[in-house]
Write a structure and sequence with these properties.
With 195 residues, the protein is an alpha/beta fold. The chain has 7 helices and 6 strands.
C-alpha cells in the first residue's frame, strides 16, 4: 500500500457519519462566530477548487483500488473483510486516509459526508460538478450529506439550486437549528434570528 496517498479531511463530522467517507469541499467555517464552537477559531474560510476536489476524489479511488488489490493478494477475493481492515490498521505505514477509506469500504461504500462546517458556502457549480464526479467514480454511493447554515441555504440557494444539488447526489443537509429563542441566538452569536 502506498502510504504517500493522502487527501484532505476536515476535523468534524456528525456521529452518524462514523462509517462514511469524509471529503473536505471547503475549509473551516465562513461564519466562525458561534460562542460555543472553538474548532475553527483563527482559521480563514476557504473555498476549494474543482481541480483540488477531483484530485482528492481520484486519490480516494487510488486508495480504494489498492485496498482491493491487497484483498486479492491476501486471498479475500477482492472483499474488504474485518481481517483485512485489521491488517491495514495494524500496519504502521498506513495513514489516516487509507484507514478511513478501508472503514468506508468495509461498511459498503454507500455513504459520504462532505466537510467542512458549511460546504454550501462554496461555489455552487463546483459543488455540483464535484458531486457528479464523485458519483461517477463511485456509483454505489446512495447517500451524500453535509453541514450547512440555515442562513446560507436561505440566502444563496433557490429551490432550483437545491434540486440541482439533489440531482448531483446530495441527499441530506445537517442544519444547526439549536433554538428559536432570539435572546439565546444573539448570546451564542449565531448570526441569525428565529425569523
Amino acid at each position: 500500500m502506498n502510504s504517500s496517498l493522502k487527501y484532505e479531511m476536515g476535523p468534524i463530522r456528525p456521529p452518524n457519519e462514523a462509517t462514511s467517507l469524509l471529503l473536505r469541499f471547503t475549509r473551516n467555517c465562513p461564519w466562525n462566530g458561534c460562542l460555543f464552537c472553538h474548532i475553527y477559531k483563527g482559521k480563514r474560510f476557504e473555498k476549494r477548487s474543482l481541480e483540488e476536489l477531483k484530485r482528492d476524489i481520484d486519490t480516494v479511488k487510488e486508495i480504494h483500488d489498492s485496498i482491493i488489490e491487497l484483498s486479492w493478494r491476501r486471498g479475500f477475493a477482492g472483499k474488504v473483510t474485518a481481517d483485512l481492515v485489521a491488517e491495514i490498521f495494524s500496519n504502521p505505514s498506513s495513514n489516516e486516509c487509507t484507514r478511513q477509506v478501508a472503514i468506508w469500504m468495509f461498511y459498503g461504500k454507500r455513504h459520504v459526508f462532505i466537510q467542512d462546517a458549511n460546504s454550501l458556502a462554496g461555489e455552487k457549480g463546483v459543488i455540483i460538478e464535484a458531486l457528479r464526479y464523485l458519483k461517477e467514480k463511485f456509483p454505489e454511493i446512495d447517500r451524500i450529506t453535509s453541514y450547512a447554515r440555515s442562513k446560507t441555504v436561505a440566502k444563496r440557494y433557490s429551490v432550483e439550486d437545491l434540486a440541482s444539488l439533489r440531482e448531483a447526489g446530495l441527499t441530506r443537509l445537517h442544519i444547526g437549528l439549536e433554538t428559536g429563542y432570539d435572546f439565546l441566538l444573539k448570546y451564542m452569536n449565531k448570526g441569525v434570528t428565529k425569523a
